[in-house]
């Protein structure tokens, strides 16, 4: 049996942290809330197939049945009893990770939907839902209801740039810029820590990747960028036609000298694409202050939006090139589509991904102001984590981001060598304590992200790791 004190703690009734020893009992109310939501959706479905004149007798009967079922579910929620719902529909399991666990998955933390975004998802889930009022000139960024046109303007201002578009993920932002600027054989400056999608964008355009190596601390410096540009110009006979630099990389979550990169880009007259996949939406970003020509962000990584979603913002001098409109014409019909933007393939982000981004945007604008608090919590957890002998942080210290890479080869991996579950013992122990997001089976090098956790959750998280270490005889600093 699990101590009742544990559940009081998790509900907030106790100030101290209590840890689960034999497995966490999942609150049945979570499943029941989903069941209630699905019941309401079934009732909504009746209206979707009814005539405008109103419901007929059989439809009214279905609504009445739904209300009775809903009343039963609400009673079960009050009494905390009933059977657990496991599937949304055939073979699609119910996803309750965010309700049942503290989730420290490195790529999911900044993409959790806000309450308003979840409401928007319900209302705008249909495929072309945002196109109800798409009038001339028949382009996504010109739609006024919902106010998508205004959102684009606000997005550009939020990023300190002149014009913005929404795109299906950061990778499509890279693709739009690279395909506009890079010809076959052109050198493009990436780094030894660049995301693979940047490489693919260059490959698709026929460009050639030239990397800047990180220093001994896994940091990209302005000096190294300048030295590499000089070297490329000597060897290739021309400078890179584009430079792409991640502000915080996905491997270590280290901060790179983007301001220095902006200065170097201007000095060598090289267009600079700022990759803000792990910054735009969680910390303040001003593209012009950085010296960027292009800012790319990820909606589903850092802007509390449904996937796939992202943003691309550009300076005024690049608007006509990146957001060029089509000149193509049909040879037989003479058809032309002049208002459609080539790199956007006409329109980009329709329906739920866009509306969840819009619904979350007011919250995103506020939360970036609290970035220092998020970093403080990250360092607070790291301080506890390092009390376990053998634990190491591979990212720069102190942490400047909530995404961190760690090495537990000399601690938890030593346990894994003899444990019957091998490396899976750690994720198993964490799940018993209501924690998820660590890569299954990882006990050597792995990543986590504390973004969005409260002080209370960070304290619980640290205590959980300490408890697991003590359980398996790993020395813990007093």
From TrEMBL:
Residues binding pyridoxal 5'-phosphate: 170-171, 275, 298-300
EC top class, as a word: transferase
Keyword Ribosomal protein: no
GO biological process: translation
UniProt cross-references to Gene3D superfamilies, sorted A to Z: Aspartate Aminotransferase, domain 1, Type I PLP-dependent aspartate aminotransferase-like (Major domain)
Entry's Gene Ontology molecular function annotations: aminoacyl-tRNA ligase activity; Sep-tRNA:Cys-tRNA synthase activity
Pfam short name (any one): SepSecS
Highest taxon of source: Archaea
Keyword annotations of the record: Protein biosynthesis, Pyridoxal phosphate, Transferase
Catalytic reaction equation(s): O-phospho-L-seryl-tRNA(Cys) + hydrogen sulfide + H(+) = L-cysteinyl-tRNA(Cys) + phosphate
Record SUPFAM superfamilies: PLP-dependent transferases (SSF53383)
Modification type N6-(pyridoxal phosphate)lysine: residues: 301
Keyword Transferase among UniProt keywords: yes
Cofactors: pyridoxal 5'-phosphate
EC number: 2.5.1.73
Role, per record: Converts O-phospho-L-seryl-tRNA(Cys) (Sep-tRNA(Cys)) to L-cysteinyl-tRNA(Cys) (Cys-tRNA(Cys)).
Family note: Belongs to the SepCysS family.
Name this polypeptide is given: O-phospho-L-seryl-tRNA:Cys-tRNA synthase
Organism field: Candidatus Syntropharchaeum butanivorans
Top-level taxonomy: Archaea, Methanobacteriati, Methanobacteriota, Stenosarchaea group, Methanomicrobia
